[in-house]
Amino acid sequence: MKICLNGKNIQIACATLQELWDREQAEREIESSKGFAIAVNNTLVSKRDWSTTSIHVDDKIEIVRAISGG
Amino acid sequence: MSDDFEIAGVRLKSRLLLGTAGYPNQGILRDAVEASGCELVTVSIRRVSLEGHGANTVDILSHYRLLPNTAGCETARDAILTAELAREALDTNWVKLEVIGDRETLYPDTSELLEATRKLVDMGFVVLPYCNDDPVLCMRLADAGAAAVMPMGSLIGSGMGVANAANIEFICRRSPVPVIVDAGIGTASDAVIAMELGAAAVLLNTAVAKSDDPVLMARAMRHAVEAGRFAYRAGRIPRRGRAEPSSPQMGLVGS
User: Fold this and answer.
1) Which residue ranges form the domains of chain A, and what is each CATH number?
2) How far apart are CA A3 and CA A1, in angstroms?
């Protein structure tokens, strides 16, 4: 299905946010979800809800992390 | 005598807050933060695709209190979502609120800033808004529930120091919440001036990160903030338009 992830249109086979996170975690060699957060269609989804949050076609998903800032 | 200050019930010994962006490398960042003596450091929230922009800052500064910002946001809506993401990611309800109204000056959009402050306070956030050096706006932000106000010394990253000392002094004198002078600090003397005007603290980043020796400049800023605070508490002498001899005028040789 097509979604927009961090501003880029991509095709994914993930059914839930947790599956999408697991994919990103493996791809980017991220150790844990500490310091990360996800929003779907401009709404925060708490980590405890990732596994029960379904992804739908054309969802706009943002996966963010804390980095250096002023 | 303790001279700690307090934000939202949290006591801080250091009156210097340090940004974490733009350092030559993460080792220098870590050493500079340590040399500064600060307890509170700012971070930003960005898409995971931005690798190489201090992605491991949270790990190397894990023993400091992190203050996430909403830098780059141009609407109250985006700033609120960013604050929510930061709370989820970092497990803190503190936020340095920035809502930018102009890309060239990075001046805050004051109406969006006020709206975002009100909403975030209602949502349980400890809000520290970056704002203009405008006494009325600072009062409105405090009325809206801001835990501190952060008027600009001068434009972000400009190194122009405290551009409107009279306004900063007035804001400090009138504010019911701590005043943290944020942005524009270029060197140690600028931080001294901000503190002498009565600021509770100073937040700076570029002056340290982009100096030739960030660790040394961080140390200079630590002492500058302390010196400015001591001078403020001690009370400066009045300015005079004429000389006032400090040595006794009687008993001069040859008189």
Assistant:
1) 2-65 (3.10.20.30)
2) 7
CB-based contact (8 Å) between B73 and chain A?
Answer: no
Q: Residue B83 and residue A15: Cα distance in Å, rounded?
A: 27
- Residue B86: which domain range? 5-234
- How do residues A29-59 score in pLDDT, each as one tens digit? 888 888 899 999 999 999 999 999 999 999 9
ipTM: 0.92
A-to-B residue pairs, Cβ atoms closer than 8 angstroms: 103
* CATH number, domain with residue B172: 3.20.20.70
Q: What is the pTM of this model?
A: 0.92
pLDDT for B43-99, tens place per residue? 999 998 755 555 688 888 989 999 999 999 999 999 999 999 999 999 999 999 999
Look at residue B181 and tell me if it is in a domain.
Answer: yes
Which token pair is B166? 């009279």
Question: Could you give the number of structural domains in chain B?
Answer: 1
Q: Which two tokens stand for residue B68?
A: 């996430």
Q: Cα–Cα distance between A5 and B48 in angstroms, integer? A: 10
- Choice among B13, B96, B119, B210 that is catalytic: B96
